[in-house]
């Protein structure tokens, strides 16, 4: 065989050796790959944890604002939350607080559908909206639609940075996520609705609704709701008070969009488009301006001041005073107060006839100004006389020219009525009987009793109370007279007036602020209910008293029924005389008109207490049949000559009834020289005495002066006044 023949290799008949090497090599490679994957995962986890930690740190280090730097408007509301007065913020904006429950549901539905349909689903950033806006911008070469969510807009409004750059947009996104972590969806929406711009210095949907529609946003028409949705998009160019056509077009586009989204049907949208767009702003409410200013001064730290006032009654009374008072002169003002007798809550308080009327000094709150009350204090003189047992409504008194030292009071018409009952004297506001009774009870006692219930009379410097107090020679406030007359209505207990509905409750109540005994207070109320009414009133509906101060400077009318007391004043704030200003023809008609506006809330006057002495002049005990000169009849003179005498307690004594253990004892009494049967009167209230008794004891629960009167079967009588402790 030739040596140059090609050499061939025979195939081996044994197994072909493996090209992958030994069997552990794949396993080792898989382990390496697993280690690599694990390392990558660990690295990613570390990066993720570090990133999350960094974001958490950044979130905590740079938390978002949850409220703007400029706080919202301070508001004053009525007892039920209705707006009385609002004030601009420090930067001059109208930004009123609002809650979602106080906003029309249709408006909320329109707003979310128009601005952020996935508001309830996203976490602050709507990624679908971002992708859609990016695609539209790439295709069109400019911004076609935005991707701001309501949360992002809220973040921008809170931060107060209006620039629209990419950096600001990214910042808004980050802040939106932060807000979503801290607030609920409803809280974010409420924050947006309180900050959204609506043109000019109007911010928030509540301020916008009041400024453009004159109403709260709790009930809006579809057209109004659509306009409020459209305005924040471009608040300055769409302002209806400046650009009504642009505003209407924007509103109509919102309505069309709501139809396409099936939020409202086409026929509702078509009807809404026919509604006019407001072309001027409406002034914000300015009710109870004096009370609002006082509330701010008392509690400047509060954002919301809630008063006890009834908004509708306040508005009605302000319009009444503003309409009636100008009839009496160009510089005449007026004031009125309505009080709830049982609680002392002030339901309406009108401080002047026009807050902005400089000619009438409208800024001066005449409910708290010191003025002469004229005859308005007379009922309390009679009440003290009734309580002391020296007079009764049917007691005869003399109205004749009388000198009290150098003091010679005359009646308003310079005439005299002769002998009249105390009832008639008070109803006709006669001066001589009032001064005579005041002399008997003591001016100092009247002033002290009023001070005990929180009413301090203003006397000239260095002077003590004198008889002139009874006819107006003293200063008093309208608000104090309202409280005193409310006490007459409530059986002699004077309420503590309150206007701050959020004031802390008073400390545990002690003894009531009693002005008069229940019987004496009812006597006075019963007498005043018979006072002849003015031309526009009906007799017997209310108990009331008028008063005209010396020189025609002040006219008063104060009245009450079983539920309310109304006090009215008319005059010039500067104290100048107003010729012809008489309470009966000026203040009294306003009083009766005010009660007419309270007609649905009226309550009858309470009935007589069980121990009231219901009698005629002839059937009264002899000592009560006449007072002063009217008591000098043969029968009374005969009784005075008898020997009946109260032996104990002595007249003018101070008697301590609390023993060392704090237990209340009864007041002991003893009578000498009497014939049976004997009748006792404690502050005019008859006390049952057993037949033939000459001694006994009486319950006297309250501290203060009491008058004890004893009358026997023959008409003899004696009285003592003691101070009980």
UniProtKB/TrEMBL annotation:
The keyword Glycosyltransferase applies. Residues 334-560 form the Penicillin-binding protein transpeptidase domain. Keywords: Carboxypeptidase, Glycosyltransferase, Hydrolase, Membrane, Multifunctional enzyme, Protease, Transferase, Transmembrane, Transmembrane helix. One of its GO terms (cellular component) is outer membrane-bounded periplasmic space. One of its GO terms (biological process) is proteolysis. It comes from the Bacteria. Residues 1-23 are annotated as: Disordered. It catalyses: [GlcNAc-(1->4)-Mur2Ac(oyl-L-Ala-gamma-D-Glu-L-Lys-D-Ala-D-Ala)](n)-di-trans,octa-cis-undecaprenyl diphosphate + beta-D-GlcNAc-(1->4)-Mur2Ac(oyl-L-Ala-gamma-D-Glu-L-Lys-D-Ala-D-Ala)-di-trans,octa-cis-undecaprenyl diphosphate = [GlcNAc-(1->4)-Mur2Ac(oyl-L-Ala-gamma-D-Glu-L-Lys-D-Ala-D-Ala)](n+1)-di-trans,octa-cis-undecaprenyl diphosphate + di-trans,octa-cis-undecaprenyl diphosphate + H(+). Residues 82-258 form the Glycosyl transferase family domain. Its EC number is 2.4.99.28. It is an enzyme of class 2 (transferase). Pathway: Cell wall biogenesis; peptidoglycan biosynthesis. Residues 1-10 have a biased composition (Basic and acidic residues). In the C-terminal section; belongs to the transpeptidase family. In the N-terminal section; belongs to the glycosyltransferase 51 family. This is peptidoglycan glycosyltransferase. It comes from Pseudoxanthobacter soli DSM 19599.
């Amino acid at each position: 065989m030739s040596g140059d023949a090609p050499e061939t290799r025979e195939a081996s008949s044994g197994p072909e050796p493996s090209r992958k090497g030994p069997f552990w090599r794949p396993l080792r490679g898989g382990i390496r790959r697993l280690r690599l994957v694990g390392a990558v995962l660990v690295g990613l986890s570390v990066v993720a944890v570090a990133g999350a930690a960094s974001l958490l740190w950044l979130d905590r280090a740079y938390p978002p604002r949850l409220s703007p730097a400029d706080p919202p408007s301070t508001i004053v509301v009525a007892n039920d939350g209705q707006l009385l007065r609002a004030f601009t913020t420090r930067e001059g904006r109208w930004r009123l607080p609002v809650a979602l429950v106080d906003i029309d549901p249709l408006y909320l539905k329109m707003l979310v559908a128009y601005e952020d349909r996935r508001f309830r689903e996203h976490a602050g950033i709507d990624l679908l909206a971002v992708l859609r806006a990016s695609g539209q911008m790439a295709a069109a070469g400019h911004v076609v639609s935005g991707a701001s969510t309501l949360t992002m807009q809220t973040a921008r409004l809170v931060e107060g940075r209006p620039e629209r750059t990419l950096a600001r947009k990214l910042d808004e996104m980050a802040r939106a996520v932060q807000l979503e972590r801290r607030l609920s969806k409803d809280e974010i929406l409420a924050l947006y609705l309180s900050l959204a711009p609506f043109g000019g210095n109007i911010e928030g949907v509540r301020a916008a609704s009041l400024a453009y529609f004159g109403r709260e946003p709790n009930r809006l028409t579809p057209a109004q709701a659509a306009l409020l949705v459209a305005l924040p998009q471009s608040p300055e160019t769409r302002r209806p008070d400046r650009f009504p056509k642009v505003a209407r077009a924007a509103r109509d586009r919102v309505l069309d969009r709501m139809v396409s989204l099936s939020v409202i049907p086409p026929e509702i949208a078509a009807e809404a488009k026919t509604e006019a767009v407001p072309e001027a702003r409406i002034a914000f409410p300015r009710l109870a301006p004096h009370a609002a200013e006082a509330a701010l001064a008392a509690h400047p730290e509060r954002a919301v001041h809630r008063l006890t006032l009834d908004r509708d009654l306040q508005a009605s009374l302000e319009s009444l005073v503003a309409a009636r008072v100008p009839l009496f002169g160009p510089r005449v003002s007026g004031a009125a107060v309505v009080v709830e007798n049982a609680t002392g809550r002030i339901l309406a308080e009108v401080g002047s006839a026009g807050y902005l009327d400089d000619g009438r000094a409208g800024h001066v709150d005449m409910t708290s100004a010191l003025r002469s009350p004229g005859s308005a204090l007379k009922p309390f003189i009679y009440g003290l006389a009734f309580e002391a047992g020296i007079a009764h409504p049917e007691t005869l008194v003399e109205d004749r020219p009388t000198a009290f030292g150098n003091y010679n009071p005359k009646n308003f018409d310079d005439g005299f009525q002769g002998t009249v009952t105390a009832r008639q004297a008070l109803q006709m506001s006669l001066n001589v009987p009032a001064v005579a009774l005041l002399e008997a009870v003591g001016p100092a006692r009247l002033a002290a009793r009023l001070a005990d219930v929180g009413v301090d009379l203003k006397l000239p410097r260095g002077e003590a109370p004198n008889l002139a107090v009874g006819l107006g020679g003293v200063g008093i406030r309208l608000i104090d007279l309202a409280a005193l007359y409310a006490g007459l209505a409530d059986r002699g207990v004077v309420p503590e007036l309150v206007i701050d509905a959020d004031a802390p409750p008073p400390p545990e109540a002690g003894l009531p602020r009693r002005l008069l005994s229940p019987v004496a207070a009812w006597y006075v109320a019963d007498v005043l209910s018979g006072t002849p009414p003015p031309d526009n009133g009906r007799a017997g509906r209310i108990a009331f008293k008028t008063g005209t101060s010396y020189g025609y400077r002040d006219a008063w009318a104060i009245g009450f029924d079983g539920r309310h007391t109304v006090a009215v004043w008319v005059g010039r704030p500067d104290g100048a005389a107003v010729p012809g200003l008489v309470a009966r023809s000026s203040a009294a008609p306003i009083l009766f008109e005010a009660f007419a506006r309270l007609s649905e809330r009226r309550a009858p006057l309470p009935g007589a207490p069980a121990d009231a002495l219901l009698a005629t002049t002839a059937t009264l005990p002899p000592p009560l049949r006449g007072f002063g000169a009217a008591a000098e009849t043969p029968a009374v003179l005969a009784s005075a000559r008898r020997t009946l005498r109260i032996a104990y307690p002595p007249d003018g004594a101070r008697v301590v009834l609390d023993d060392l253990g704090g237990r209340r004892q009864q007041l002991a009494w003893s009578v000498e020289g009497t014939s049976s049967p004997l009748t006792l009167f404690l502050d005019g209230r008859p006390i049952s005495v057993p037949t033939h008794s000459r001694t006994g004891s009486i319950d006297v629960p309250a501290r203060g002066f009491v008058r004890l009167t004893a009358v026997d079967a023959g008409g003899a009588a004696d009285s003592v006044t003691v101070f009980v402790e």
